[in-house]
Amino acid sequence: MSAKNNISLIGFMGTGKTSVGRLLSQKLKRESIDTDEMIEKETAMTIGEIFEQEGEAHFRKIEGELVKRLSGETNRIILCGGGVVLNKENIQNLRNGGKTVLLEAEPEEIYRRIQKDQTRPLLKGKMNLKTIKEILEQRQEAYLASGDIVVKTTNKTLEEVSDEIIKKLNKEC
User: Fold this and answer.
1) Are 67 and 80 spatial neighbours (Cβ–Cβ below 8 Å)?
2) pLDDT tens column, 72-111
3) Cα(159)–Cα(23) distance, rounded to whole angstroms?
4) Which of 8, 67, 68, 76 lies deepest, with the highest CB count within 10 Å?
């Protein structure tokens, strides 16, 4: 696996991007950058506040600019927000900078993982399995088209998922 290439983790909320990314960062001795955290730091607003005050389109614009900037860097693990795949230019930029790894989980598992999380703007007031399934279905085609490598995370430990990613990336190179 080339040290020059970024590894970008994509996938729906609750699939494990942040947790797996942090472990990958330790294992591969690479800096991990969470795009949502970086947006919050740079705007001094939470993602929820941006959605509420400026709208999703404004958030997606900020996200796109950040993805473009990060894609030009090297040797990073980029942890992307769940909606990054909604803009094909984001995926092109991520691929120009390295490999994209799609993390997938069953809707029931996603719900179990995030049900108490009140910071998810798309699920505000509708944190339920039905809404998760609906959003997943709307994005499924974009997710599948965006992942160079696909790793399922349901019923797997962070260790198992990170090892599987490393193994698949090594096969790709």
Assistant:
1) yes
2) 999 999 999 999 999 999 999 999 999 999 999 999 999 9
3) 8
4) 8
- What separation in angstroms does the CA of 169 have from each of 11, 18, 156? 17, 18, 18
Amino acid at 132: I
CATH number of this structure's domain 6-167:
3.40.50.300
pLDDT tens-digit map of 122-171 = 777 788 899 999 999 999 999 999 999 999 999 999 999 999 999 999 98
Q: What's the confidence (pLDDT) of residue 173?
A: 60
**Which whole-number Å values give the CA distances from 154 to 87, 94, 107, 116, in the listed order?**
26, 25, 9, 18
Q: Which residues contact residue 53 at a Cβ distance below 8 angstroms, ignoring those fewer than 6 apart?
A: 45
Distance in angstroms (rounded) separating the CA atoms of residues 40 and 131: 25
Beta bridge partners of 12: none
The pLDDT value given to residue 122: 75
- The full set of domain ranges for the chain reads 6-167
pTM above 0.90, yes or no: yes
